[in-house]
Give the backbone structure.
Amino acid sequence: MGFTVQELADHAGVSRATIYRYASLDLLERFPNEDDELAYCMRHVKIVQLITKLRAKPFPVALGRIRHFWQTLDWDEIEDLAEIESRNELSKRLVELGIFGSEGEE
């Protein structure tokens, strides 16, 4: 079936405007559902939650930077990153992937 924008926002804990912003930056690709309408799935919820983690203070990652490194990852790698709960562990993994420098900086 798939989620609407509002349902995705509700599941991910963000606003509809946030979903539209991420979609406009090509951070979220929709897929056709059985009604041939574009929709989102649970994978997208994880992606939005990952972006939220990356955007969190004290060291928020710019959306442009996220968009840039998104292009170097496949869906499985993005999902793996989304499963990491600790910001420190996430930063370490991003360093391992060569996305950030050794200090986790952009």
The longest strand covers residues 31-32. The domain at 5-96 is CATH 1.10.1660 (Multidrug-efflux Transporter Regulator; Chain: A; Domain 2).
